[in-house]
Design a protein that fits this description.
The protein is α/β, with parallel strands linked by helices. The chain has helices spanning 26-40, 45-56, 71-82, 98-101, 135-138, 142-147, 182-185, 199-211, 226-236, 243-258, 268-284, 292-303, 311-315, 320-330, and strands spanning 61-64, 86-90, 102-107, 112-117, 124-128, 149-152, 155-158, 164-169, 190-192, 262-264, 308-309. Helix content is 41%, strand content 14%. A five-stranded parallel beta sheet has the order 2-5-8-1-9. It has a two-stranded antiparallel sheet with strand order 3-4. A two-stranded antiparallel ribbon has the order 6-7. The longest helix is centred in the C-terminal third of the chain and has 17 residues, at 268-284. It starts with 25 loop residues before the first helix and ends in a 17-residue tail after the last helix.
Length: 347
């Protein structure tokens, strides 16, 4: 069994090679996982890569889009490819918190109170249409998402390891939806949008259905074992980040807090998640160190949903994504951040 407990390390080396306990480089396994999921959701390589980065970093993903574009299919495909125990929660307006986290019930045979686990007790949990339930039930996920545990009748129970939540939600303009509170949005590492497929990929999808060759998510076999996944997540957190890049991240956060367009800026949790996502992006590329491109490619997906804009920003036709893109673009890197990385230079 692979040991998932690794000591912290700031080792900075140009290439992450296969370690003694890896029969092949982890990046080879991750590439196979990407290929498997791409067979299910055609033409969405960037979206699939972002989802993998978030999961590698130990984060949760919120998929927001109109019905029918593949949100649930993407979540199921990742769950199958990673392996482990998969649970699905179909949120409805009449659900209660106990329907998510479980509850204490009377066991008739022993006449004792026993805990009956809810669907939150899984390695990969799909929270489908999370904004169709009440804020009270949505709040049942807060402790689970951040602390990986649930408290029921005064007793705390740990969630399985690893634990990843993939939530889907319909646009807020749709009937029967409830806005996710800011505290819960801040617990999602990334908010992603799938969008319509291109014409060629949509035609290819129809051809697969017509010929009976369409690969459904439930036909995907696990590519990575749970213990391997835990090992990868531990190695991701060993990725070295230059102090100058950390300073740049803090500058971006300060700019969001000072911006005239922003009512509520980035939280410290947002910066932590940005760092973890950048480390995971580097790991996926086979590096033990973060470069500026890792921050720029993950920034919008990690940060935009954590901003609350002033009404004046809407009048100027700005949204969260455009505001965070502008701040990331206009915030200069410290001079030393551009040295030795062979990537984006400071301005």
């Amino acid at each position: 069994m692979i040991n998932s407990q690794l000591s912290e390390s700031n080792e900075h080396e140009p290439q992450l090679n296969a370690l003694n306990h890896w029969p092949e480089a982890p990046q080879v396994l991750l590439h196979r996982l990407l290929v498997k999921v791409e067979q299910v959701l055609l033409g969405k390589q960037e979206l699939i890569r972002h989802t993998l980065v978030a999961m590698l970093a130990g984060g949760h993903v919120l998929l927001e889009d109109i019905p029918g574009v593949g949100k649930t299919m993407l979540a199921q495909a990742f769950a199958r490819a990673v392996g482990g125990d998969f649970k699905r929660i179909q949120f409805t307006s009449d659900m209660l918190p106990a329907d998510v986290v479980g509850g204490v019930v009377l066991e008739p045979r022993t006449n004792e109170l026993v805990y009956r686990p809810g669907p939150i007790m899984g390695n990969v949990v799909l929270a489908d249409e999370i904004n169709r339930t009440s804020p009270r039930t949505q709040s049942a996920l807060l402790e689970a998402m951040e602390e990986r545990k649930v408290t029921i009748e005064g007793k705390t129970r740990r969630l399985p390891v690893p634990f990843m939540l993939i939530a889907t939600q319909n646009p807020l303009s749709f009937e029967g939806t409830s806005h996710l509170p800011e505290a819960q949005l801040d617990r999602f590492m990334m908010r992603l949008t799938i969008g319509y497929p291109g014409a060629s990929n949509e035609k290819r999808m129809l051809e697969q259905y017509a010929e009976g060759k369409r690969i459904e998510p439930d036909r995907i076999r696990p590519v990575i074992a749970i213990q391997e996944w835990l090992q990868m997540q531990a190695e991701v957190r060993q990725g070295h980040t230059h102090p100058a890049l950390l300073e740049y991240m803090v500058r971006v956060a300060e700019e969001t807090r000072r911006s005239n367009d922003v009512l509520l800026g980035l939280s410290p949790r947002a910066l932590r998640d940005w760092l973890r996502a950048a480390q995971a992006s580097a790991y996926l590329e086979g590096r033990r160190y973060v470069i500026p491109d890792d921050l720029s490619t993950t920034g919008e997906a990690v940060l935009s949903h954590r901003l609350t804009l002033r009404s004046s920003a809407g009048l100027a036709h700005s949204d969260e994504s455009s505001v965070i893109r502008r701040i990331i673009r206009d915030t200069p890197y410290p001079p030393e951040a551009g040295v030795g990385f062979g990537s984006r230079k400071s301005r």
